[in-house]
Amino acid sequence: MGETSKDALIFDQSAGIERLLEIMRRLRDPETGCPWDIEQDFASIAPYTIEEAYEVADAIERGDWPELEGELGDLLLQTVYHTAMGEEDGHFTFQSVVRNISDKMVARHPHVFGDESRDKSADQQTADWEKIKAAERAGKAQGGALDGVAVGLPALLRAYKLQKRAARVGFDWPDTGEVVAKIAEEAAELVEARDILTQAEVEEEFGDLMFVMANLGRHLGLDPEAALRSANAKFIRRFEGVEARLAQIGKTPEQSDLAEMDALWDAVKQAERS
User: What are the residue boundaries of the NTP pyrophosphohydrolase MazG-like domain, all occurrences included (predicted)?
Assistant: First the structure.
């Protein structure tokens, strides 16, 4: 493809993914590209990839569909970025990545693309999916039950996934009541640790409590990461409500006190429920 046709592709709004791939090639061109883009590598781009995934989740949480369209584009750009670098280093290409995930989805859905029956429950489909994934891990010499749970996941989400994996092989509390009892035990240990142990030991006890809290979420059928994200959003919404009510009387939080702000917090909560 000549330079003229490449330029035409870059400005062709109907060209789809090929346009984006060519834009990335041009940005990474060592002679004519963008200096910042040329300097990047997998490690430097990875934090942006994680950030964009969270921004997608945030747009979904808020039901902001125009925003979601833009965030999905930002997330797609991350894939294009990584595959461009992979192609430059001879590891893989965008097309090989697409082929890989396409093959995987076909292999993991024999009830859609193969000769297996679709007449099964969602739970059975999930169980079958996990069997296929276990076989894939075995093929990659990942024999341990916890192998393949990404180290780079947010800690709360990784705890949930580790516990889920362990539960598949029978390492799990049989009912929610035992998890709640363990939370009470860990909370008591944390209170004790606060007074008599080192900061490192207090951190360890706090981590134990967080880990069991993630397990309680799993037993309740909840995603702890999503639950905490919702709690964060609720806190922001209510605190902004407190700020707004303070502003109505000409004050800022710095000019208020805990008692006043706590009363306004309760008023905001009540207004939400009414």
Answer: 40-113
Which pLDDT does position 62 carry in this prediction?
A: 87
| DSSP class of 268 | H
Report if pTM > 0.90. no
Structure confidence at residue 54 (pLDDT): 87
Q: Which parts of the chain sit beneath pLDDT 50? A: none
Alpha-carbon distances of 172 from 55, 127, 151, 221, 224, rounded to whole Å: 33, 17, 22, 14, 17
Angle at alpha carbon of residue 216, lines to 262 and 197, rounded to 5°: 70
H or E segment at 82? helix 65-88
Q: At 213, which amino acid appears?
A: M
Residue 114's H or E segment, with its range, is none
What is the pLDDT at residue 20? 97
Kindly list the distances between the CA atom of residue 61 and the CA atoms of 56, 154, 214, 239, 272, in Å, as whole numbers in the listed order. 9, 18, 20, 18, 18
Cα separations in angstroms, 210 against 173, 219, 236: 16, 14, 22
How many Cα atoms sit within 13 Å of 270 on the Cβ side?
A: 6
Domains of the chain plus CATH, in order, are: 3-107 (1.10.287.1080), 227-273 (no CATH)
Say how far apart CA 72 and CA 55 lie, in whole Å: 9
Question: What does the pLDDT read at residue 125?
Answer: 76
Torsion of CA 174, 175, 178, 179, to 10 degrees: 100
pLDDT of residue 132: 74
CA distances to 18, 55, 234 from 64, rounded to whole Å, are 27, 11, 16
